[in-house]
Write a structure and sequence with these properties.
The structure is a homodimer of 83-residue chains. With 83 residues, the first copy, chain A, is mainly alpha-helical. Chain A contains five helices and no strands. Chains A and B meet through helix 3 of A and helix 3 of B.
């Protein structure tokens, strides 16, 4: 997984989850400092439809395994306090 | 929601998600400092089965709306860096 590539790919994510991985929207989770393995599992579950969400499903379906690995590594690398 | 009550109710959660809300298991998410509204949505989705998980489903089914509110408030109140 490539953290820098994940950062590049994360611009869409940032609209809801924050540029620093801290969501501005209470319904949406913070991603900063979250477990990398969990983030990848969540994105794959959205992609394959086992986790259903009208926002995340269509976006996750655009992602390759490599994209998911890069995004998970990037958000896991961020400071969980948002700094 | 009652943070202190949430702490009391959180002992089962701590087995996987950590006493400080930082999971010791890479597959499982950190909860410390997560958005309160998101945590409540997640627990309700596990409870009603719209989010399917063999571990979380049966546990969430034990929870009342008040339990969920208390647990969400408690984990949201924890330091996201785990301190």
């Amino acid at each position: 997984a490539d953290i820098d590539a994940g950062k590049t790919k994360s611009s869409t994510c940032a609209n809801c989850h924050g540029r620093n991985g801290i969501s501005a929207i209470p319904m949406y989770p913070n991603l900063a400092g979250q477990k990398e393995a969990y983030l990848a599992i969540a994105l794959k579950a959205y992609r394959d439809g086992t986790r259903k969400n009208m926002v995340m499903g269509p976006m996750a379906q655009q992602l390759s395994d490599e994209d998911i690995a890069d995004l998970a590594a990037y958000f896991a690398s961020l400071d969980p306090s948002g700094k």
